[in-house]
Amino acid sequence: MKIIFIFILTFFCACGMISRHKNLNFIYESFMDIRIKKAELSDAEALYNLNRAFNGDCTTMELISISLCNNENEIVLIAYVDDNPAGFLCGEICHSMCYETLHGEVGELFVHEEYRKQGVAKRLISQIENEFKKVGICTVDIATSVENLSAQVFYAGCGYTGKIKFIYRKNI
Questions:
Q1: Among 92, 124, 145, 161, which is most exposed with the fewest C-beta within 10 angstroms?
Q2: CATH classification for the domain delimited by 34-157, as one of 3.90.1140.10, 1.20.58.760, 3.40.630.30, 3.40.50.10710
Q3: Confidence band of 163 (pLDDT split at 50, 70, 90)
């Protein structure tokens, strides 16, 4: 049924009989099986491949496995679409002696190109917000580059407000 519907929708869009817009994306999304879950050791290879597509060769599967097992302050979510790894999000639980409350930070959010504009990123954001709420976090920060306008529009659409902030980095 799902395959037939997608074929028909694709046919009508290709023929110009209907235009693909948000309402059609919503219909299309409702036929997709998007599953968001906390990453486990069994997801390490999928996370490695997704991260490699996003960040290049900056880590190993071994380091990802160690982090999944030992980093209690990081919440890693992975998205599967029809059982295919589609994206991931890394959220950090932050605590400082300077502040009374915890806050959350989204350090990485990536959705593979073929699964973009299908609701995957929104579901990842929604799930990390729920995970943060469970541990008492009320504020979430997400950083993105000034040049990444599509990410800025996306985050604003999720209810986030932009604040100018400079991040300085030095290799030591």
A1: 161
A2: 3.40.630.30
A3: confident
CA 58 to each of CA 1, 21, 73, 159, 167: distance values in angstroms, whole numbers, following the listed order: 41, 37, 21, 31, 20
Half-sphere exposure of 116 (CA within 13 A, CB side): 9
User: Rounded distance, CA 154 to CA 141, Å?
Assistant: 14
What is the 8-class DSSP label of residue 57?
S
* pLDDT tens column, 77-100: 999 999 999 999 999 999 989 989
Q: How many CA atoms lie within 13 A of 73 on its CB side?
A: 10
Q: What is the 3-state secondary structure (H, E, C) of 123-137?
A: HHHHHHHHHHHHCCC
* Domain spans of the chain, in order of start: 1-31, 34-157
Locate 74 and state its tokens.
């990081």
Question: CA angle, 78 as apex, 52 and 58 as ends, to 5°?
Answer: 20
